[in-house]
Amino acid sequence: MLYQAYQFQDDLIAPLRDLARRLQIFSATAFWEPVGSMGQHFTAALEMISRFEITHERPDFAITSAMIGNRMAPVTVETVLDMPFGTLLRFAVETDAQRPRVLVVAPLSGHFATLLRGTVQTLLRDHDVYITDWANARDVPLSVGRFGMDDYVDYIIRFLEEIGPGAHILAVCQPCVQALAAVAVMSEERHPATPRTMTLMAGPIDPRESPTKVNELAVSKSLAWFENSLITAVPWRYRGAGRRVYPGFLQLVAFMSMNMERHQDAHRKLYDHLAKGETAEAGKIKNFYDEYFAVLDLTEEFYIETIERVFQKAELATGDLTHHGRKVDPGQIRNTALLTVEGGRDDICALGQTSAAHDLCRALRPHLKRHHLQANVGHYGVFNGRRWEGEIYPVVRNMILAME
Protein backbone atom coordinates (compact mmCIF):
# COMPACT_ATOMS: atom_id res chain seq x y z
CA MET A 1 0.00 0.00 0.00
CA LEU A 2 3.06 2.27 -0.01
CA TYR A 3 2.44 3.74 -3.46
CA GLN A 4 -1.27 4.15 -2.77
CA ALA A 5 -0.51 6.04 0.46
CA TYR A 6 1.86 8.37 -1.38
CA GLN A 7 -0.69 8.93 -4.15
CA PHE A 8 -3.46 9.62 -1.63
CA GLN A 9 -1.32 12.23 0.12
CA ASP A 10 -0.41 13.88 -3.18
CA ASP A 11 -4.08 13.97 -4.20
CA LEU A 12 -4.93 15.72 -0.93
CA ILE A 13 -2.26 18.39 -1.44
CA ALA A 14 -3.04 18.96 -5.13
CA PRO A 15 -5.99 21.35 -4.52
CA LEU A 16 -3.78 23.51 -2.27
CA ARG A 17 -1.11 23.73 -4.97
CA ASP A 18 -3.76 24.58 -7.54
CA LEU A 19 -5.19 27.32 -5.30
CA ALA A 20 -1.72 28.80 -4.79
CA ARG A 21 -1.15 28.90 -8.57
CA ARG A 22 -4.50 30.60 -9.14
CA LEU A 23 -3.74 33.19 -6.48
CA GLN A 24 -0.36 33.80 -8.12
CA ILE A 25 -2.08 34.53 -11.42
CA PHE A 26 -4.65 36.73 -9.71
CA SER A 27 -2.03 38.67 -7.74
CA ALA A 28 -0.14 39.42 -10.95
CA THR A 29 -3.13 41.11 -12.59
CA ALA A 30 -3.73 44.82 -12.73
CA PHE A 31 -6.85 44.44 -10.58
CA TRP A 32 -5.01 43.49 -7.42
CA GLU A 33 -1.30 43.24 -6.91
CA PRO A 34 0.32 42.92 -3.48
CA VAL A 35 2.74 45.73 -2.81
CA GLY A 36 5.44 46.35 -0.27
CA SER A 37 7.34 43.84 1.83
CA MET A 38 4.23 41.96 2.97
CA GLY A 39 3.02 41.59 -0.61
CA GLN A 40 6.38 40.25 -1.81
CA HIS A 41 6.49 37.71 1.00
CA PHE A 42 2.92 36.69 0.23
CA THR A 43 3.65 36.01 -3.44
CA ALA A 44 6.88 34.21 -2.50
CA ALA A 45 4.92 31.96 -0.13
CA LEU A 46 2.38 31.20 -2.85
CA GLU A 47 5.11 30.12 -5.24
CA MET A 48 6.75 27.92 -2.61
CA ILE A 49 3.40 26.18 -1.99
CA SER A 50 2.76 25.73 -5.71
CA ARG A 51 6.17 24.08 -6.09
CA PHE A 52 5.54 21.52 -3.33
CA GLU A 53 5.29 18.66 -5.80
CA ILE A 54 7.11 15.61 -7.17
CA THR A 55 6.57 15.08 -10.89
CA HIS A 56 6.70 11.81 -12.80
CA GLU A 57 7.06 13.11 -16.35
CA ARG A 58 10.39 13.57 -18.09
CA PRO A 59 11.30 17.25 -18.41
CA ASP A 60 12.30 18.54 -21.81
CA PHE A 61 16.00 18.40 -22.63
CA ALA A 62 15.68 22.01 -23.80
CA ILE A 63 18.80 21.72 -25.96
CA THR A 64 18.05 23.72 -29.11
CA SER A 65 21.54 24.81 -30.13
CA ALA A 66 25.20 23.96 -29.63
CA MET A 67 28.47 25.81 -30.09
CA ILE A 68 30.23 24.22 -33.08
CA GLY A 69 33.57 25.88 -33.62
CA ASN A 70 32.82 29.61 -33.57
CA ARG A 71 29.11 29.44 -34.39
CA MET A 72 25.87 28.33 -32.78
CA ALA A 73 24.26 25.46 -34.70
CA PRO A 74 20.62 24.34 -34.34
CA VAL A 75 19.98 21.05 -32.53
CA THR A 76 16.95 18.78 -32.88
CA VAL A 77 16.20 15.70 -30.77
CA GLU A 78 15.44 12.60 -32.83
CA THR A 79 14.08 9.22 -31.78
CA VAL A 80 16.40 6.63 -33.30
CA LEU A 81 15.01 3.48 -31.67
CA ASP A 82 11.95 3.18 -29.41
CA MET A 83 11.78 0.16 -27.11
CA PRO A 84 9.39 -0.55 -24.20
CA PHE A 85 11.79 0.29 -21.36
CA GLY A 86 13.99 2.82 -23.11
CA THR A 87 14.44 5.01 -26.16
CA LEU A 88 17.61 5.83 -28.05
CA LEU A 89 17.67 9.57 -28.71
CA ARG A 90 20.02 11.50 -30.96
CA PHE A 91 20.84 15.20 -30.70
CA ALA A 92 21.15 16.05 -34.38
CA VAL A 93 23.33 19.08 -35.11
CA GLU A 94 23.25 20.95 -38.40
CA THR A 95 26.83 20.49 -39.56
CA ASP A 96 28.57 18.89 -42.52
CA ALA A 97 31.54 17.71 -40.45
CA GLN A 98 31.93 14.03 -39.57
CA ARG A 99 32.05 13.86 -35.79
CA PRO A 100 32.72 10.97 -33.36
CA ARG A 101 29.51 9.22 -32.33
CA VAL A 102 29.06 8.88 -28.56
CA LEU A 103 26.41 6.89 -26.69
CA VAL A 104 25.76 8.42 -23.27
CA VAL A 105 24.38 5.76 -20.92
CA ALA A 106 22.22 7.56 -18.37
CA PRO A 107 21.62 6.17 -14.88
CA LEU A 108 18.43 4.27 -14.13
CA SER A 109 18.31 5.26 -10.49
CA GLY A 110 15.21 7.34 -9.93
CA HIS A 111 15.83 10.36 -12.17
CA PHE A 112 15.30 10.92 -15.89
CA ALA A 113 18.09 11.13 -18.46
CA THR A 114 17.61 14.91 -18.53
CA LEU A 115 19.73 14.99 -15.38
CA LEU A 116 22.62 14.74 -17.87
CA ARG A 117 21.52 17.79 -19.86
CA GLY A 118 24.77 19.61 -19.06
CA THR A 119 26.82 16.55 -19.98
CA VAL A 120 25.15 16.33 -23.38
CA GLN A 121 25.37 20.08 -24.04
CA THR A 122 29.13 20.00 -23.52
CA LEU A 123 29.69 16.84 -25.56
CA LEU A 124 27.81 18.37 -28.50
CA ARG A 125 30.68 20.78 -29.12
CA ASP A 126 32.71 18.03 -30.76
CA HIS A 127 30.55 14.91 -30.98
CA ASP A 128 27.46 13.34 -32.48
CA VAL A 129 25.63 12.52 -29.24
CA TYR A 130 23.11 9.77 -28.47
CA ILE A 131 21.55 9.03 -25.07
CA THR A 132 19.58 6.25 -23.37
CA ASP A 133 16.22 7.73 -22.37
CA TRP A 134 14.89 5.21 -19.83
CA ALA A 135 11.13 4.80 -19.38
CA ASN A 136 9.23 5.31 -16.15
CA ALA A 137 8.33 1.75 -15.13
CA ARG A 138 4.90 2.81 -13.91
CA ASP A 139 4.02 3.69 -17.52
CA VAL A 140 5.08 0.32 -18.99
CA PRO A 141 2.23 -2.25 -19.15
CA LEU A 142 2.70 -5.57 -17.38
CA SER A 143 2.15 -7.33 -20.69
CA VAL A 144 5.55 -6.07 -21.92
CA GLY A 145 7.30 -8.31 -19.39
CA ARG A 146 10.22 -7.87 -17.02
CA PHE A 147 13.29 -5.64 -17.12
CA GLY A 148 16.34 -6.69 -15.12
CA MET A 149 20.09 -6.20 -15.25
CA ASP A 150 20.57 -8.59 -18.16
CA ASP A 151 17.91 -6.70 -20.10
CA TYR A 152 19.69 -3.42 -19.37
CA VAL A 153 22.89 -4.85 -20.89
CA ASP A 154 20.86 -6.07 -23.88
CA TYR A 155 19.49 -2.56 -24.42
CA ILE A 156 22.99 -1.05 -24.42
CA ILE A 157 24.17 -3.60 -26.98
CA ARG A 158 21.07 -3.03 -29.12
CA PHE A 159 21.56 0.74 -29.02
CA LEU A 160 25.22 0.40 -30.03
CA GLU A 161 24.15 -1.82 -32.92
CA GLU A 162 21.72 0.87 -34.04
CA ILE A 163 24.43 3.56 -33.90
CA GLY A 164 26.77 1.32 -35.86
CA PRO A 165 30.48 0.36 -35.81
CA GLY A 166 33.08 2.83 -34.63
CA ALA A 167 31.06 4.53 -31.88
CA HIS A 168 32.14 5.39 -28.33
CA ILE A 169 30.37 4.82 -25.02
CA LEU A 170 30.25 7.06 -21.94
CA ALA A 171 28.45 5.82 -18.81
CA VAL A 172 27.61 7.96 -15.80
CA CYS A 173 27.28 6.54 -12.28
CA GLN A 174 25.25 3.34 -11.76
CA PRO A 175 25.30 2.04 -15.38
CA CYS A 176 29.11 1.89 -15.45
CA VAL A 177 28.70 -1.75 -14.38
CA GLN A 178 26.28 -2.59 -17.19
CA ALA A 179 28.28 -0.61 -19.76
CA LEU A 180 31.47 -2.50 -18.89
CA ALA A 181 29.53 -5.78 -19.02
CA ALA A 182 28.09 -4.90 -22.44
CA VAL A 183 31.51 -4.05 -23.88
CA ALA A 184 32.97 -7.26 -22.42
CA VAL A 185 30.20 -9.36 -24.00
CA MET A 186 30.58 -7.62 -27.35
CA SER A 187 34.37 -7.92 -27.25
CA GLU A 188 34.21 -11.65 -26.57
CA GLU A 189 31.81 -12.09 -29.50
CA ARG A 190 33.95 -9.81 -31.70
CA HIS A 191 30.83 -7.81 -32.35
CA PRO A 192 31.34 -5.25 -35.16
CA ALA A 193 29.63 -2.52 -33.11
CA THR A 194 32.00 -2.88 -30.14
CA PRO A 195 32.83 0.73 -29.16
CA ARG A 196 36.28 2.19 -29.71
CA THR A 197 36.44 3.84 -26.27
CA MET A 198 34.66 3.35 -22.96
CA THR A 199 34.47 6.21 -20.47
CA LEU A 200 33.25 5.24 -16.99
CA MET A 201 32.40 8.18 -14.75
CA ALA A 202 31.82 7.81 -11.00
CA GLY A 203 30.39 4.28 -11.15
CA PRO A 204 30.39 1.38 -8.63
CA ILE A 205 32.63 -1.07 -10.48
CA ASP A 206 33.84 -2.26 -7.06
CA PRO A 207 31.66 -0.78 -4.28
CA ARG A 208 33.81 -2.48 -1.63
CA GLU A 209 36.44 0.21 -2.14
CA SER A 210 36.01 3.12 0.31
CA PRO A 211 32.33 2.36 1.04
CA THR A 212 29.99 5.36 1.21
CA LYS A 213 26.67 5.65 3.05
CA VAL A 214 24.95 4.39 -0.10
CA ASN A 215 27.16 1.27 -0.17
CA GLU A 216 26.78 0.68 3.56
CA LEU A 217 22.99 0.84 3.38
CA ALA A 218 22.93 -1.69 0.53
CA VAL A 219 24.88 -4.26 2.55
CA SER A 220 23.39 -3.51 5.98
CA LYS A 221 19.96 -4.91 5.11
CA SER A 222 18.89 -8.29 3.79
CA LEU A 223 17.46 -8.66 0.30
CA ALA A 224 14.14 -9.60 1.91
CA TRP A 225 14.13 -6.25 3.74
CA PHE A 226 14.46 -4.34 0.48
CA GLU A 227 11.73 -6.44 -1.14
CA ASN A 228 9.30 -6.07 1.76
CA SER A 229 10.02 -2.45 2.69
CA LEU A 230 10.68 -0.65 -0.60
CA ILE A 231 8.88 -2.57 -3.36
CA THR A 232 5.25 -1.74 -4.08
CA ALA A 233 2.65 -2.09 -6.82
CA VAL A 234 1.80 0.70 -9.27
CA PRO A 235 -1.74 2.10 -8.67
CA TRP A 236 -4.45 1.18 -11.15
CA ARG A 237 -4.72 4.66 -12.67
CA TYR A 238 -1.42 4.22 -14.54
CA ARG A 239 -0.52 2.18 -17.64
CA GLY A 240 1.81 -0.03 -15.64
CA ALA A 241 -0.90 -0.85 -13.10
CA GLY A 242 0.04 -3.81 -10.92
CA ARG A 243 3.73 -3.77 -11.87
CA ARG A 244 5.93 -4.09 -8.81
CA VAL A 245 8.40 -1.21 -8.64
CA TYR A 246 10.85 0.68 -6.51
CA PRO A 247 9.18 4.12 -6.57
CA GLY A 248 11.23 7.10 -7.64
CA PHE A 249 9.87 9.18 -4.78
CA LEU A 250 11.59 6.83 -2.30
CA GLN A 251 14.91 7.25 -4.08
CA LEU A 252 14.44 11.02 -3.99
CA VAL A 253 13.79 10.92 -0.23
CA ALA A 254 16.89 8.77 0.25
CA PHE A 255 19.08 11.16 -1.75
CA MET A 256 17.72 14.22 0.05
CA SER A 257 18.18 12.68 3.50
CA MET A 258 21.91 12.40 2.82
CA ASN A 259 22.19 16.20 2.57
CA MET A 260 18.96 17.46 4.13
CA GLU A 261 20.50 20.61 5.60
CA ARG A 262 21.81 21.64 2.18
CA HIS A 263 18.36 21.19 0.59
CA GLN A 264 16.67 23.10 3.41
CA ASP A 265 19.16 25.92 3.04
CA ALA A 266 18.60 26.01 -0.73
CA HIS A 267 14.84 26.41 -0.26
CA ARG A 268 15.32 29.14 2.34
CA LYS A 269 17.49 30.97 -0.19
CA LEU A 270 14.85 30.40 -2.87
CA TYR A 271 12.18 31.99 -0.67
CA ASP A 272 14.43 34.97 0.10
CA HIS A 273 15.24 35.50 -3.60
CA LEU A 274 11.55 35.35 -4.50
CA ALA A 275 10.59 37.78 -1.72
CA LYS A 276 13.26 40.22 -2.89
CA GLY A 277 12.31 39.92 -6.54
CA GLU A 278 15.68 38.43 -7.45
CA THR A 279 14.34 36.37 -10.35
CA ALA A 280 17.69 35.37 -11.88
CA GLU A 281 19.01 33.93 -8.62
CA ALA A 282 15.68 32.25 -7.88
CA GLY A 283 15.58 30.81 -11.40
CA LYS A 284 18.84 28.92 -10.94
CA ILE A 285 17.53 27.17 -7.83
CA LYS A 286 14.16 26.46 -9.40
CA ASN A 287 15.71 24.97 -12.52
CA PHE A 288 17.80 22.59 -10.43
CA TYR A 289 14.89 21.40 -8.31
CA ASP A 290 12.52 21.13 -11.27
CA GLU A 291 14.93 18.48 -12.53
CA TYR A 292 15.68 16.97 -9.13
CA PHE A 293 11.99 16.52 -8.25
CA ALA A 294 11.19 14.75 -11.53
CA VAL A 295 11.41 11.04 -10.71
CA LEU A 296 10.81 7.69 -12.38
CA ASP A 297 10.08 4.25 -10.97
CA LEU A 298 12.37 1.21 -11.40
CA THR A 299 11.13 -2.30 -12.00
CA GLU A 300 11.39 -4.59 -8.98
CA GLU A 301 13.72 -7.00 -10.73
CA PHE A 302 16.17 -4.32 -11.86
CA TYR A 303 16.32 -2.67 -8.43
CA ILE A 304 16.65 -5.89 -6.44
CA GLU A 305 19.21 -7.35 -8.83
CA THR A 306 21.24 -4.13 -8.63
CA ILE A 307 21.23 -4.25 -4.82
CA GLU A 308 22.23 -7.91 -4.78
CA ARG A 309 24.57 -8.26 -7.75
CA VAL A 310 26.23 -4.81 -7.85
CA PHE A 311 26.40 -3.81 -4.19
CA GLN A 312 25.99 -6.83 -1.93
CA LYS A 313 27.94 -9.38 -3.97
CA ALA A 314 30.04 -7.02 -6.14
CA GLU A 315 29.81 -9.67 -8.85
CA LEU A 316 31.67 -7.68 -11.51
CA ALA A 317 34.67 -7.09 -9.25
CA THR A 318 34.77 -10.70 -8.00
CA GLY A 319 34.47 -12.21 -11.49
CA ASP A 320 31.05 -13.74 -10.78
CA LEU A 321 28.89 -11.52 -12.98
CA THR A 322 26.89 -13.34 -15.64
CA HIS A 323 24.81 -12.22 -18.60
CA HIS A 324 21.96 -14.61 -19.37
CA GLY A 325 23.88 -17.30 -17.50
CA ARG A 326 27.17 -16.73 -19.31
CA LYS A 327 30.13 -15.37 -17.35
CA VAL A 328 31.12 -11.78 -18.13
CA ASP A 329 34.88 -11.45 -18.53
CA PRO A 330 36.27 -7.88 -18.86
CA GLY A 331 39.57 -9.54 -19.72
CA GLN A 332 38.13 -10.10 -23.19
CA ILE A 333 38.28 -6.36 -23.85
CA ARG A 334 41.38 -5.83 -26.01
CA ASN A 335 40.72 -2.95 -28.40
CA THR A 336 38.34 -0.62 -26.55
CA ALA A 337 40.31 2.13 -24.81
CA LEU A 338 39.32 2.71 -21.18
CA LEU A 339 39.00 6.04 -19.36
CA THR A 340 37.79 6.18 -15.75
CA VAL A 341 36.86 9.40 -13.98
CA GLU A 342 36.39 9.95 -10.24
CA GLY A 343 35.62 12.96 -8.07
CA GLY A 344 37.77 13.65 -5.06
CA ARG A 345 34.76 14.59 -2.90
CA ASP A 346 32.24 12.09 -4.25
CA ASP A 347 30.07 10.86 -1.35
CA ILE A 348 28.04 8.45 -3.51
CA CYS A 349 30.74 6.63 -5.47
CA ALA A 350 34.03 7.06 -3.63
CA LEU A 351 37.64 6.93 -4.78
CA GLY A 352 38.77 3.58 -6.11
CA GLN A 353 35.34 2.25 -6.99
CA THR A 354 35.50 3.24 -10.66
CA SER A 355 39.24 2.91 -11.22
CA ALA A 356 38.86 -0.76 -10.25
CA ALA A 357 37.88 -1.28 -13.90
CA HIS A 358 41.56 -1.05 -14.88
CA ASP A 359 42.44 -4.24 -13.01
CA LEU A 360 39.46 -6.05 -14.51
CA CYS A 361 40.39 -5.04 -18.08
CA ARG A 362 43.67 -6.90 -17.73
CA ALA A 363 44.19 -7.51 -21.46
CA LEU A 364 44.25 -3.83 -22.36
CA ARG A 365 47.69 -2.48 -23.15
CA PRO A 366 48.85 0.44 -20.97
CA HIS A 367 48.43 3.08 -23.67
CA LEU A 368 44.73 2.16 -23.91
CA LYS A 369 44.09 2.92 -20.23
CA ARG A 370 43.76 6.25 -18.49
CA HIS A 371 42.41 7.39 -15.12
CA HIS A 372 41.43 10.96 -14.23
CA LEU A 373 40.93 12.07 -10.64
CA GLN A 374 39.22 15.44 -10.39
CA ALA A 375 39.98 17.05 -7.06
CA ASN A 376 37.39 19.08 -5.16
CA VAL A 377 34.26 17.88 -6.97
CA GLY A 378 31.41 15.79 -5.64
CA HIS A 379 29.36 13.23 -7.51
CA TYR A 380 27.28 15.69 -9.55
CA GLY A 381 30.34 17.78 -10.40
CA VAL A 382 31.96 14.88 -12.24
CA PHE A 383 29.52 15.24 -15.15
CA ASN A 384 28.03 18.73 -14.76
CA GLY A 385 29.25 22.21 -14.06
CA ARG A 386 32.42 24.24 -14.41
CA ARG A 387 34.94 21.51 -13.55
CA TRP A 388 33.29 19.07 -15.96
CA GLU A 389 33.34 21.58 -18.81
CA GLY A 390 36.80 23.00 -18.24
CA GLU A 391 38.87 20.13 -16.83
CA ILE A 392 37.17 16.74 -17.19
CA TYR A 393 35.63 17.10 -20.63
CA PRO A 394 38.97 17.86 -22.38
CA VAL A 395 40.30 14.53 -21.06
CA VAL A 396 37.23 12.69 -22.38
CA ARG A 397 37.45 14.46 -25.74
CA ASN A 398 41.15 13.70 -26.16
CA MET A 399 40.64 9.99 -25.39
CA ILE A 400 37.90 9.76 -28.03
CA LEU A 401 39.88 11.69 -30.64
CA ALA A 402 42.93 9.50 -30.06
CA MET A 403 40.89 6.42 -31.07
CA GLU A 404 39.16 7.91 -34.11
UniProtKB/TrEMBL annotation:
Residues 202-401 form the PHB de-polymerase C-terminal domain. Keywords: Plasmid. It comes from the Bacteria. InterPro entries: AB_hydrolase_fold, PHA/PHB_synthase, PHB_depo_C, PHB_depoly_PhaZ. It holds the Pfam family PHB_depo_C. NCBIfam families: PHB_depoly_PhaZ (TIGR01849). This is Polyhydroxyalkanoate depolymerase. It comes from Rhizobium beringeri. The lineage of its organism: Bacteria, Pseudomonadati, Pseudomonadota, Alphaproteobacteria, Hyphomicrobiales. The gene is phaZ.
